[in-house]
Amino acid sequence: MAGSGAFGEILEGEVFKFYYDGEWRTSSSGKSVAIINPTTRKTQYRVQACTQEEVNKVVDSSRVAQKAWAKTPLWKRAELLHRAAALLKEHKNPIAECLVKEIAKPAKDAVTEVVRSGDLISYCAEEGVRILGEGKFLVSDSFPGNDRNKLCLSSKGAVAALHMVHCFHLAGFPKGLISCVTGKGSEIGDFLTMHPGIGCISFTGGDTGIAISKKAGMIPLQMELGGKDACIILEDADLDLAAANVAKGGFSYSGQRCTAVKVVLVMESVADIIVEKVNAKLVKMTVGPPEENCEITPVVTESSANFIEGLVMDAKQKGAKLCQEYKREGNLIWPLLVDHVRPDMRLAWEEPFGPVLPVIRISSVEEGIHHCNASNFGLQGCVFTKDINKAILISDAMETGTVQINSAPARGPDHFPFQGLRDSGIGSQGITNSILMMTKVKSTVINLPSPSFTMG
Fold first, then answer.
1. What does the DSSP assignment read for 47-87?
2. Which of 108, 223, 337, 445 could form a disulfide with 425 if both were Cys (CB 3.0 to 4.6 A apart)?
């Protein structure tokens, strides 16, 4: 259970503490922030409402800790990261429970996510050692190292994050090196973003990320801000493969993934077949609470559900065909394929971030590429065809960070770069790229008193 057993230290009464200078603390504000369960739409947890003064203390402590950490050998840093990864996996069940209650992640998938996070931490440890083996001098906060005080912002999953931070605490990381503050965005959000002591910001989200990028100072930004990932299907595609990937890529975790298929651009001659095959798969999808490992679970907030409903109603009123009856109970929306969507409909361009997928019928490849590139987003895309030459040409023409050929968009191997264009973000994720982004390069030049000579 969350906040019990090994995690008993992080909870006081009904409110989870925040982490600063190696200790779990309660805020001087005496206030808390409610975390709403998407399934019940009731308060599940409460976290501290930290003050700006507490943020100042956290940043000051981090800067001091970073100076000492810079002198820590890389093998020691790797050892601590491996220890934290092992603890994360050991305590995967209570952390996964938080994900189920906070973001309605299906129980089985939640456990997988925690284990995968542990794998990522271990990968990060090994990558840091590898870079050292190449003779590079690493001064990176991601590894972690020195010179960068990184700020990671999140609006959901706060309690799961607190449990994760406790694993780092139990692993024995030095005081002040890792902190976790919680609070209201209206009170500490901009304050954190514009704080002169912050050396780097990493954020995953949407419009909030764009606002952050406009307010942040001259520091590195790593922004992954969503997408409208297009799936282009040609006449010669394996239609069973394409339909399977559309269903899985568009509706896993209720479509609440930045790499989910967000719009299907299918050639008119095979559109009826694709729609029929996808519909057949949607009928079989289980819908319900995440505790029961249903494929379609509630979206994260009521405002998200209202937004999705607005996109559906706009498309319906303008003549789109709803392939299933639109059904909603609270935050739970049944999977819906919307056919005959046109460019004048909001659903053609806006990201629903839910279990609703538009189908746009195209008459040429050029039409599909044009729609993809006209989007404000440019995270990922995919193309289905048996002609490798066409696949490469279309991939080159699609203005996105990644293009999958004959597979749905996906994060991909952890060493792969992960980035988007336009409103999809700034910078590149992926362990190696993250380390480099969080590394400050410095050159020291030694001037000899007399010319040097080469041998030979």
1. EE---HHHHHHHHHHHHHHHHHHTTS-HHHHHHHHHHHHHH
2. 223
- The answer to whether the pTM exceeds 0.70 is yes
127 is catalytic: no
Nearest to 403 by CA among 423, 373, 358: 373
Is 258 a known active-site residue?
yes
User: In this structure, what token pair is assigned to residue 152?
Assistant: 């990671």
| Selected catalytic residue, list 50, 98, 258, 372 | 258
- The partner residues of 233 in beta bridges, in order of sequence, read 266, 384
Which amino acid is it at 96? A
CA 398 to chain centre: 22
The tokens 């998200």 sit on which residue?
A: 304
Q: Which residues pair with 240 in a beta bridge?
A: none
Q: What share of the chain is helix, strand, coil (3-state, %, to 5)?
A: 45, 20, 40
Choose, from 97, 113, 127, 224, the residue flagged as catalytic.
224
For residues 350 and 338, the answer to whether their CB atoms sit within 8 Å is: no
pLDDT for residue 148: 44
C-beta separation of 205 from 221 below 8 A: no
Are 95 and 3 in contact by the 8 Å Cβ rule? The answer is no
CA dist., res. 51 & res. 73, Å (int): 35
**Mean pLDDT (whole number) for 166-172:** 96
